[in-house]
Write a structure and sequence with these properties.
This protein has 375 residues and is of the alpha+beta class. The protein folds into 3 domains: 1-73, lambda repressor-like DNA-binding domains (434 Repressor (Amino-terminal Domain), Orthogonal Bundle), CATH 1.10.260; 76-238 and 314-375, no CATH class; 242-307, no CATH class. It has helices spanning 9-22, 27-34, 38-45, 53-63, 67-71, 88-110, 128-142, 152-155, 194-210, 224-239, 242-253, 259-270, 274-283, 289-296, 302-307, 323-334, 340-346, 364-374, and strands spanning 78-81, 161-166, 173-180, 183-189. Helix 11 crosses helix 12 and helix 12 (259-270) packs across helix 13.
Amino acid sequence: MERARLGSWAEVGSRVATARERGGFTQRELGDRLGLHRSAITRIELGQRHLDALELAQLADALGRSVEWFLTEPPAVIASHRDGLSADRNVQRLEDELERTCRDVELLNDVNVLSVPSAALHPGVTSRDEAEARALEARSLLGRGDGPLLDLQAAVEPLGLLAFSLDLGPSVIDGGYVRLGDIGVALVNGTADPGRRRFNLAHELGHHLLADEYTADFGLGTTRADREALINVFAIHFLMPRSSFHTRWTELSGQWPDPRHRLVVLAAEFRVSWSATISHALTLELISRSDFELLKVRRPTSGDYLEVGARFDEELQPVALAPAYSQAAVRAYRRGVITADRTIELLRRTVAAEDLPRPHEMPIEALASEFEDII
């Protein structure tokens, strides 16, 4: 998974400018930190002033980046937006977090402690019907039937996707996706409500399996909105297959004549947001457009869930790290490949040093062999 090296000082300078701007520094402020004149920072960012190893290390330290960050190309991030709004600053934060996560994943892969299956569907879809069919194919690969998919973070790993949930702050950014060879890395915004987080992860799975950004003839057109709409269709049918949704709707009709009560149960059982549940019911023609408009403003409360005897268990609460990734980080530490401090960083400080298991001790035979080699 070696990242492509930058080929010119102008490209390095561009990375410096990006890091400075995202860090909230002016050229003068960064120069003051490094003991350089503002004009020197300008020339660095234009690629007109070369950096030696010591200066690059000092620059990386001042901007909170690794030296490697300035010398390699960033991953191609696919950012998912809510309501199509633009938010450059929020996208930058997402890109920073995804790039850091990708580098950590690459580290664990390069030291041979990370094992993630690879899976793919036929890339691209051209219609809503095809998007629904691809969702059912994905479920078939998992062998999980058509019922609710619980613990979605673990469920997507057999499909080659490592899922992370981090607190990105209240923003219009739902999440993002990066492809690293056969492995996909998805990051969802943990500040969203629980059902929305699951939908966002299913959406990123669609990017991963359908490879929409890498397929010229993906679907309805060439616009991002067209692709996102089809990915949304994939996501909703992956989480709530038509057949099981219909079946539960019919089963619940005897106990709960009021459609709203049934929808509250379905939202809890499938662990999806209220808006996704009622939108799906409308698409499947289980409710009318007028019913939908009324239900939009009658969002369920905790009391509504208690009334129908349903419990909405939360998933993807931040910080939530991909299970295979967390296992790999501890495995690398146990083998002595990385230090305790690096392991804690990889695990986003969800553990302390005393929580880590003891590193593997070298067998006496191996110690004796090493001693013989020395003498």
